[in-house]
Amino acid sequence: MQTEALGIMSEYYGSATDMQEDEYILTELGKKDGITANIAKGTVTYKNKEYTLSEITGGTEEKQTLEKNNLEEITLANAEKGSAEEALLKEQSVRAVITEKEDKMNKAVIPTGFYYVTGTPSTGLVISDKMGDDDSNSKKGNQFVWIPCSGTNGITYEKTDDNGTGNHGLASYWEEYKSKQWYYTTVPSGYTNAGQAITGWSDNGGNYASVTKYGGFYIGRYEAGVPRDADFYADSEGATYYKEEKKNSEEVLSMRPIVQKGTQSWNYISQEKAKKVSENMYKASTSVTSGLVDSYAWDTAVKWMASDSKYSGIGMDSKNYGNYLDNTTITANTLYALHRYANRNATGVANNKNDYWTVATKYKKANITSGRVTLGTSIRDQYEFALNSYDDTNYNYYIYKELATGAADETKVKNIYDMAGNMWEWTTETGNHTTANGSSGTTFAVLRGGGFGNYGSDGPVSIRHGNGSATGFSIDIGFRPVLYIR
């Protein structure tokens, strides 16, 4: 059976099928005599014994990595009868349970259709939806990191069982980092009903039931990226860079983002559309639900990072862990910025407020550092900004650089990349105001994590910024999906 499975796997990569890899292999195996396939469960039965797909194919790399990290994979084939693990594995949504050999209380649940990549439940266990994927994401699977909310090294899930009210005021993590937040309390000028009070900052996201049942949840390893089949995707030398006219159009509502290494973050997208496309990722899945990251998941992930003494101060100052103005540690020649932005700052013209951003029109690889670089006369020819002229007497010109997703290991904390810096990231937390006639007014949505134009002390990973409309978009705003097991 193993030989047949490996042969089918080879056929898959040469086929034009729209099926996921595991679904294709299981479907074809199920056509063989004596083999019964359970596609929803991700298993096959042969001679009255049930096997997971990784067991059939040998899962050589996966098994070697598990052994190297001193982990044990529990499946229905080897689960102890009557154990909690066996009970979970009998559900269609669970493929395996990974435990640490030295402390079996530390565990992660692997949903059906996903595969172990690297890490441990205590240090950042990574899964992918592509079989055989690795730490470098060579198979281009979407990767997620387990946030343990149980076990010896787990962190308490921020949201309590509040009967669905989503009252963020109950959250202890919110209280701890409340000095790092900015909220509109009244509708600002420029919006209808300016001056009216904004009330009800809340988040009805999260999934207390799933986290409690499975002991944790998954967060995107990388910032959400532009889908590779989109006509506005650009990661090749000389590719045209597109802005909001395509990235935030109505056409994107049927698209699915990618969570993969070395691609362009999906910026210029509103919170409303980021929420929708995040939900699209695994809409047909029977094992997980995907969505835009909620405040409870974000805060819990931050506290889990900070629980490690190495990162204990990250919630208050993330300078060394993100693409910020004041981080100059990201200097490796292998890094590159997918997009560069030039900003013009007035120096000697007191009444001139015509400062502006312009975007490099073409993608171009180059050695970079993080932070801001002065666009001096000696390097201007290296960039393709649409500046008609330079007025060095009255203005300074700077370059701000956006990193590709997961481009810099300096931004990795417990196997999660770029939660601090690079892009501000939309969440499901919102605030609303009510107009004089009682109708709903503008919805404002919360951004987290800081961006490439911020400082790591002012805009750390814990920051909560509620000063943007849910329909707005910008060059430095992206998003990140989260997964809950069904």
Q: How far is the N terminus from the C terminus?
A: 30 Å
DSSP summary, beta strand count: 24
Q: Given the helix and strand composition, which structural class is it?
A: alpha+beta
Radius of gyration: 24 Å
The biggest sheet amounts to:
6 strands, antiparallel
| Annotation field: number of helices | 10
Q: Strand portion, in percent?
A: 25-35%
The geometry reads as globular
Helix content: 10-25%
Strand order of the largest sheet: 7-8-9-12-24-13
Uncertain spans, ≥5 residues at pLDDT below 50?
163-170
User: Mean pLDDT across all residues, rounded?
Assistant: 84
Describe this structure in words.
There is one protein chain. The protein has 486 residues and is of the alpha+beta class. 16% of the residues lie in helices and 26% in strands. The chain has 10 helices and 24 strands. A 6-stranded antiparallel sheet has the order 7-8-9-12-24-13. Strands 10, 11, 20, 21, 22 and 23 form a 6-stranded mixed sheet that branches. A hairpin with a 2-residue loop joins β5 (94-100) and β6 (103-111). α1 (2-14) packs across α2. The radius of gyration is 24 Å and the shape is globular.
List the helices and strands and how they pair.
Layout: H1 2-14, H2 21-29, E1 35-38, E2 43-46, E3 49-52, H3 53-57, H4 60-68, E4 71-74, H5 84-89, E5 94-100, E6 103-111, E7 115-118, E8 126-128, E9 143-148, H6 172-176, E10 181-183, E11 199-202, H7 208-214, E12 216-220, H8 244-247, H9 271-280, E13 288-292, H10 295-306, E14 337-346, E15 357-359, E16 372-374, E17 395-403, E18 412-413, E19 416-417, E20 424-434, E21 440-448, E22 464-469, E23 477-478, E24 481-485
Parallel strand pairs: 10-22, 20-23
Antiparallel strand pairs: 1-2, 2-3, 4-5, 5-6, 7-8, 8-9, 9-12, 11-20, 12-24, 13-24, 14-15, 14-17, 16-17, 18-19, 20-21, 21-22
